[in-house]
Amino acid sequence: MVDDDRLILESTEGAQLLHSRRIGDEFLLGFDTVADLPKPAVTIFGSARVPEGHRAYEEAREVGRRFAEAAFTVVTGGGPGVMEGANRGAREGGGLSVGFNIVLPHEQRSNPYLDVEVVFEHFYVRKTMFVKAAEGFVIFPGGFGTLDELFESMTLIQTGKILDFPVVLFDSAYWNGLLDWIRAPLLAEGMISPEDWDNLHVTDDADEAVRLVIGAYEHRTVSAAAPVSAAAPVSAAAPVSAAAPAAQAETRREGTAPPLPPGHSAQAEKER
Question: Which of 96, 104, 95, 101 is nearest to 117 (CA)?
């Protein structure tokens, strides 16, 4: 199969209108699919290369099951590895299992645990649907694609495109080195601000991962329904910054955040 994204980059001026129409049609397909999904939902990312029995596969399976038991739709990239584990767990928990897939030269076969699948041709359309569908991300160990989703979500948070959106890194031993690098030099040298990673969490516990996403969802829905002056309950789980959760949750809506103390917590897509 010819890579449509590559064709767009290499296309001449006369082909651009056709590509634009195809991209627009694919966005509409994605938006219609997301609109039909039961809410709320969570998107789970991680490596396509880990087999059944690998720790990341089994932990994603458990997290997917617990989200399904909490009445969350579980969305993944629809492929093997961690994605399969999460979709499998969602099925086992009695929930809806969704895959937003894409055709790649290798790795990205569909896993057999999908209730809803959309196969996208364009990465940027697919990535938009991951965010639009979800109340938060849970990110397991993975490679460049997983890191891409992580840093895109943090950029969307930093620029105010998404609000009250928890990003939960699962497996502290895997992620702590990256978090140390973010804190120094990025934070220490002023490349990012303390509030830029206010919604970034790390945990080794399936229950905590689920609580972090559900807590943010509940806080957001309560805040939307309550008067502006009313205080809303928030999740008690601590973010990476280890600042007081209630103070952080109240300030996220206002576009500010409390200072970040040093350190971080070790817990805290059928084609139509």
Answer: 101
Domain that holds residue 50: 4-252
**Residue-level pLDDT at 17:** 80
Rounded to whole angstroms, how far apart are CA atoms 115 and 78? 10
CA distance 41 to 82: 17
Check if the beta carbon of residue 166 is closer than 8 Å to that of residue 136. Answer: yes
Measured between alpha carbons, how far is 12 from 18 in angstroms, rounded to an integer? 11
SS3 117: strand
Residue 244, domain member (yes or no) = yes
The domain that contains 223 carries what CATH number?
3.40.50.450
Q: Distance between CA atoms of 152 and 45, rounded to whole angstroms?
A: 13
pLDDT in tens, 15-55: 778 888 899 999 999 999 999 999 999 999 999 999 999 99
**Residue 261 counted as domain residue:** no
Question: Is this model's pTM higher than 0.90 or not?
Answer: no
Of 135, 33, 139, nearest to 83 by C-alpha is 139
- HSE of 99 in the Cβ direction (CA atoms, 13 Å)? 28
pLDDT of 234 above 90: no
The tally of domains found in the chain comes to: 1
pLDDT in tens, 183-233: 999 999 999 999 988 899 999 999 999 999 999 999 988 877 766 544 444
Strands 137-139 and 200-203, by their bridges, are unpaired
Determine, yes or no, domain membership for 47: yes
Question: Which is higher by pLDDT, 8 or 150?
Answer: 150
Its sign, for the CA torsion 192, 193, 195, 200, is positive
Cα–Cα distance between 150 and 261 in angstroms, integer?
22
**Within a domain: residue 40?**
yes
